[in-house]
Amino acid sequence: MYLQTRDFEKAVDRFRVAAAAEPYNVSAAYNLFTALSRAGRGEEGEAAKQRFLQLRDSAYKSALGSNYLEQGRYAEALASTGAEAVDEQTADVAFTRKDVVAGAASTLPRSALVLADVDADGALDVVESGLPSLRVLRNEPGRFVDVTGKSGLTGVPAIAAVAETTTTTAGRISWC
After folding, report:
1. Residue 83 contacts by C-beta under 8 Å, 6 or more apart in sequence?
2. 1-77 has which fold?
3. How far apart are CA 62 and CA 72, in angstroms?
4. How far is C-alpha 175 from the chain's CA centre?
């Protein structure tokens, strides 16, 4: 999404996390190379390109594709007969309050993404919470378009967002 919206610095940050999490993922390596190059970071981009080329030509790489059958090891699916045992035990999860001290904003996450069909068109849109403000990106064929201004959320600071959608109405976004 950040590559599509030309926010190359954020794209670099996210692809660095992805590449660190899966060092042999050729998709993460390629996208890191692309983001660095488009951000104008020539030397770093060249080093990332060499890493990508090394992975691409190796037998030990993993990759993600944009289509289901291209998704490599993540495409594994299991057939369900409906007769499998189901664990109905409630997970031991609790929400806790965390007060943020004034001036501590630098310790908060810079952004978080929530996928939801906020306009009820059947395609997942993106709500980005984080500093300095909330953003809404509408999913149009082949790209994301920033519709924050149209949504009336321009300049709204938010460190977290939750989207609620139904099959018949546009989504509702809550934030803090």
Report:
1. none
2. 1.25.40
3. 7
4. 18
Please check whether residue 138 is in contact with residue 147, taking contact to mean a CB–CB distance below 8 angstroms: yes
For the ranges 24-38, 90-104, 143-157, the one whose mean pLDDT is highest: 24-38
Give yes or no for residue 104 having a pLDDT over 60: no
> pLDDT at residue 50 above 50?
yes
Q: List the end-to-end C-alpha distance of the chain, in Å, as a whole number.
A: 23
Residue 27, both tokens:
């998709």
3-class secondary structure, 139: strand
Distances (CA, A) of 117 to 114, 139, 150, 165, 167: 10, 9, 16, 6, 9
Place of tokens 């594994």: 76
Q: Where in the chain is the domain with CATH 1.25.40?
A: 1-77
Contact yes or no for 23/55 (Cβ under 8 A):
no
Q: Is the pLDDT of residue 69 over 50?
A: no
Helix (H) or strand (E) holding 174: strand 172-175
Q: What tokens were used for 118?
A: 């906020």
